[in-house]
């Protein structure tokens, strides 16, 4: 039951993009087309789950035993940055088709605050490793749902006659606001 | 470009939030009140200026290939300093900004200025650039925070401003939506539209 609550909360109630404002850059940046949105979701899911596992292990087995918790920010960002590099190299060698699909999105992920945010929130919420993994998967699905819905909306926005001053970013932000309003309906679910 | 233009470009012309759309995560997340927006803006300014200084100083010592990781370590050190200082002296603000303090490290604005400006310019220009871009960012966050606080809670910087009708016991009838998540997107969307309008004329 606990696990079910974590996953529903991460996907709908506390949606990482629309409610917690993590990962807004890719949300605004690569949501112009549905296909790129799906590719970005794949890359984010992959890195988010693995990065959460690695940072969790570092926190529990290195930072806490040695009492160097103040190095958290520095070590987490270094781990995530080098980890993304490593994933890129491994994918290139092991699975060229997957690399083709996710490759262009990987370098963008280092500065995606959703990855670092989920890693930090896993520690802050006192999750154990299993709950952390579930939370990361849920957050990644939530990211995917938000960005895919938004990409669909934006493809339609292109065809509409938007007032001149509102074209581009302003109307995209207002639509995102309405989408966030819809997600507010899930509040109190868990 | 002289130093004055270098300083003022961050406020309107190249404003990080309104024009370049950098650092949107903290912009949307912490601006539920003007004070939070200002606090976040100033914390980011400090990190930006200090990182620009160090990057400008060591730019010739760092090999080209490990440039980005080195910049990230420099930025992360200053973020840790801000994090611990704020936790010690301003615990309530630290509580309100929460996870977004350590996340300054992944704010594209800071790394962007280190890479695009400080690594190519001398130290004085880098300080001026950091101050200008940082204060421009703080200005944007404070403005957005003030608008949201005004519409959502009927006050600015905690001082109540009577623009809304009040109920019988004197509490203002406000648009609560604006201090919640959707209001952040909507308020920023309209602010950008208004600023685009002014830039054209």
Automatic annotation (TrEMBL), chain B:
EC numbers on record: 7.-.-.-
EC class name: translocase
Its membrane topology: Multi-pass membrane protein
Cytoplasm found in the keyword field: no
GO biological process terms on file: electron transport chain
Gene Ontology CC: endomembrane system; plasma membrane
Keywords: Cell membrane, Electron transport, Membrane, Translocase, Transmembrane, Transmembrane helix, Transport
Residues passing through the membrane, by range: 39-58, 70-90, 96-114, 126-147, 173-195
NCBIfam families registered for this protein in UniProt: PRK12405.1, rnfE
Family named by the database record: Belongs to the NqrDE/RnfAE family.
Assembly description: The complex is composed of six subunits: RnfA, RnfB, RnfC, RnfD, RnfE and RnfG.
Protein name stated in the entry: Ion-translocating oxidoreductase complex subunit E
UniProt organism field: Salinivirga cyanobacteriivorans
Name of the gene: rnfE
């Amino acid at each position: 039951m606990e696990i079910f609550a974590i996953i529903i909360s991460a996907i709908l109630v506390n949606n990482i993009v629309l409610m917690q404002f993590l990962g807004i850059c890719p949300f605004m940046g690569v949501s112009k087309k549905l296909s790129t949105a799906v590719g970005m979701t794949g890359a984010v899911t992959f890195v988010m789950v693995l990065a959460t596992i690695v940072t969790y292990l570092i926190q529990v087995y290195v930072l806490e035993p040695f009492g160097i918790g103040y190095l958290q920010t520095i070590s987490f960002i270094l781990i995530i940055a080098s980890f993304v590099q490593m994933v890129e190299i491994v994918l290139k060698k092991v699975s060229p088709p997957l690399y083709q699909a996710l490759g262009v999105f990987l370098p963008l992920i280092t500065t995606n605050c959703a990855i670092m945010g989920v890693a930090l929130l896993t520690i802050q919420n006192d999750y154990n490793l299993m709950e952390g993994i579930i939370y990361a998967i849920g957050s990644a699905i939530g990211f995917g749902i938000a960005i895919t819905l938004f990409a669909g909306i934006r493809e339609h926005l292109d065809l509409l006659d938007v007032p001149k001053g509102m074209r581009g970013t302003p109307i995209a932000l207002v639509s995102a606001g309405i989408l966030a309003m819809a997600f507010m309906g899930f509040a109190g679910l868990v | 470009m002289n130093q004055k233009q270098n300083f003022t470009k961050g406020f309107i012309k190249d404003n990080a939030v309104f024009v370049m759309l950098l650092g949107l995560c903290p912009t949307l997340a912490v601006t539920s009140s003007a004070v939070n927006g200002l606090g976040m803006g100033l914390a980011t300014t400090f990190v930006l200026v200090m990182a620009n200084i160090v990057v400008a100083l060591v730019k010739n010592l760092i090999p080209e290939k490990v440039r980005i990781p080195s910049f990230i370590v420099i930025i992360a050190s200053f973020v840790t300093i801000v994090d611990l200082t704020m936790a010690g002296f301003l615990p309530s603000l630290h509580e309100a900004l929460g996870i977004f303090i350590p996340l300054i490290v992944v704010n594209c604005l800071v790394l962007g200025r280190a890479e695009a400006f400080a690594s190519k310019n001398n130290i004085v220009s880098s300080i001026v650039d950091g101050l200008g871009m940082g204060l421009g960012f703080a200005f944007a966050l404070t403005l957005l925070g003030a608008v949201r606080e005004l519409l959502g809670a009927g006050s600015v910087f905690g001082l109540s401003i009577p623009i809304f009708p009040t109920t019988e016991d004197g509490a203002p009838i406000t648009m609560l939506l604006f201090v919640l998540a959707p209001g952040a997107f909507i308020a920023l969307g309209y602010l950008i539209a208004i600023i685009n309008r002014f830039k054209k004329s």
